[in-house]
Amino acid sequence: MNRSLGLNAALVACIAFFVTLVGLPFWWVVSGSIKIPQEIIARTPTMFPQSFTLQHYQKLFDASAYPVYLVNSLIVAASSTVLTLLLAIPAAYAFFRLVFPARGVLYRTILLAYAFPSIVVLIPLFGLFAKVGLVDRLPALIIVNVAFALPFSIWMLRSFLAGVPKEIEEAAVMDGAPTLTILRRIMIPLIAPGIASVGIYAFVTAWTEYVFASVLILSDAKRTLPVGFSGIIGQYQIDWGLLLAGATVAIVPVVAIFALIGRGFVSGLTEGAVK
Amino acid sequence: MKNILKLALATTMLMPAAALAQDAVEVTLWHMEQPPHRVARVQELIDAFNAANPGIVVKQEPQNWGEVYAKTPAALAAGQGPDMLFAIPDFTPILKDIGALTSVEDFVKELDEKHDFVDSTVEAYSYDGGVWAVPLYNMAMNLWYRKSVLEAAGVEVPTTWDEWRAAAEKLSVDGVSGMGLPANKQLYTDQTVYSVMVNGGATEIYNEDGTLRFDNPETVGAYEFYTDLHQFSPADSTSWTWGEAEACFSSQTCAMVMQFSVIATYDTQAEGDASDLGVAAIPSKDGGEHNTISYANAVMLLSTDEAKMEASKKFVSFLLEPENYGRFLNMEPGLFMPVTADGAEAETFWSDPMVEKYREQIETVIENSQNGRLFGFTSGRTFPSIAAISAQNIIAETLQSIVVSGQSAAEAVAAGQARMEEVAQ
């Protein structure tokens, strides 16, 4: 199919517009992080840095607990992602394939947990975790993140499982494969893009979680990035360079994970959409 | 045998240290001074205290103002709360009402005899027959400007509302905003609006019997003036917090701003010429006494354990000693002002390089803070509803009704009082 020059130009203009729209804030943050303080807050903003400094990064890593927050966030987000996937895959398969009483009702009910505002359960959860000694411990955040990510992950994965042709599963059954083998050897490889999507979803949710992390964690050494970082930048007096450097570093893991499994994510989104 | 002897010897040597560590009283301090340099300064003082007091171990856990209101009651209920907690006046009633505080009146009296507190800082925590926190440092709102900018425009430092408006209008040229004023539904706007109110005869928002008197002609007049002045502010000031106002001033986009302090940002992120930085009291309606909003930050002592309470008192006493107090205040030079007479003269306070450089401005700020007021804490009595009124930023919300929604000042103030009565129930 040949497209006219005009149509091509319009498409390129459209793409350029959206790339600029999405990319500009990132460019602003990243380029600002290497400007000197005077240029950052200059009356006439500069799109391209007229100065260069790494002082904000130096301050971020040398004079603040940012590296500690970063490591804590990586532990919490990675653990939450792995645990969510480990629980969501068999649960989604069970809802998809196994027949048990009240399956339909349960399947719909689990989404209620996803719809529940986190602030409502914050204080009771604090009391509960305090009783079992989980306050001010990273596992508390992992449990909460998994609990909130799991319902939507199960829902999403079940849709991907439903997209797998039934004949493939039937052939495996005829060959005598047990349920777990079918899941492990056939279904998981086939829904890999869906798993990538859910993984990214769980990671980003845990990476950006603020409410529980701000209340369940008491000590500075256990803080995750969103909470720790909001404290570093100050209230009455904002160090804009530090803010921009911290924001730049904070998006690196998310960009990295998208770069690694982004292809699977996009394909997963598409497959889920056309089921 | 030789190994057993070695082990026995090592055990004997380590015993006193272990026993000491076991006997040491551990107290936890929660504060909301989270920027790294402030945490580092508090830690320096804690280390010095711990070294001088082997029987006590103080540790700090910095918190965020955004969460501490919800987090503290939950943590206390779960037995995980702090022994000392920094506070502003409207935070204290929340903890007092849940029975987490005991009066520290005698302790404050003892400290007052030794250091002489600024009266208004103690008054902010004195009500219902007790004193509920120990004042630590003060923050007062001021009018900041550049001397060279005012001189170039032929404008005198304003002292009355009329002069203030005229100055803001004259300074609003070539893309510069004459006066940076926030109109966000946020604490900063509460503070700037109240700073205008206290200079227009609208200091009290409660009657003596605890009923609200927010809706009165003086308050309406203050809102009318603020709204009029706000036309000389940048368009995005409806979403400002402190940082944006400071950046506006530092970048010379705003000729004047109301702030607690701009010194640190001006020095590190702008031109940093101390001789050009001007600070004045907030102009009053008719040029009479200049008042301002001031936040007497304090520390609440929460421990129910006698040994921990004594250890906490010892640490607070240590902080207020002039040889330590200046270093404590200068965790953010130019922002935190002394609340004691001997602290205001302390060598440790004035010898900080930044304080030395901006001495003239800091002396003015200290002078201005003497006339500090805080809404809901002005009559010697406080009413529990002030915590909710403050938490919901109703003073700022009232301004937004005028600036954003276009209501008249009289309508918005009447609606503001209705909202206050609603949340007070």
What do you see in this structure?
- The complex is a heterodimer of chains A (275) and B (425).
- With 275 residues, chain A is mainly alpha-helical.
- Chain A has 2 domains: 1-52, no CATH class; 55-272, MetI-like fold, CATH 1.10.3720.10.
- Helices cover 76% and strands 0% of the residues of chain A.
- Chain A is built from 13 helices and no strands.
- Chain A has helices at residues 5-32, 37-40, 55-62, 66-97, 103-115, 118-131, 138-162, 166-174, 179-190, 192-208, 211-216, 225-232, 240-273.
- In chain A, α1 runs antiparallel to α13 (240-273).
- The longest helix of chain A has 34 residues, at 240-273.
- With 425 residues, chain B is an alpha/beta fold.
- Chain B has 2 domains: 21-139 and 295-366, Periplasmic binding protein-like II (D-Maltodextrin-Binding Protein, domain 2), CATH 3.40.190.10; 141-293 and 371-423, D-Maltodextrin-Binding Protein, domain 2, CATH 3.40.190.
- Chain B is 50% helix and 13% strand.
- Chain B has 21 helices and 11 strands.
- In chain B, α9 (187-197) packs across α20 (394-403), α19 (385-391) crosses α21 (409-424) and α20 packs antiparallel against α21.
- The interface between A and B is large, with 36 and 43 residues.
- Chain A: Residues 70-261 form the ABC transmembrane type-1 domain.
- Chain A: Pfam families: BPD_transp_1.
Short description:
Chain A is mainly α and 275 residues long.
Identify the notable features of this structure and list them briefly.
A: 275 residues; mainly alpha; MetI-like fold; 13 helices; 76% helix; flat; B: 425 residues; alpha/beta; D-Maltodextrin-Binding Protein, domain 2; 2 domains; six-stranded mixed beta sheet; three-stranded antiparallel beta sheet; 21 helices; transmembrane helix (chain A)
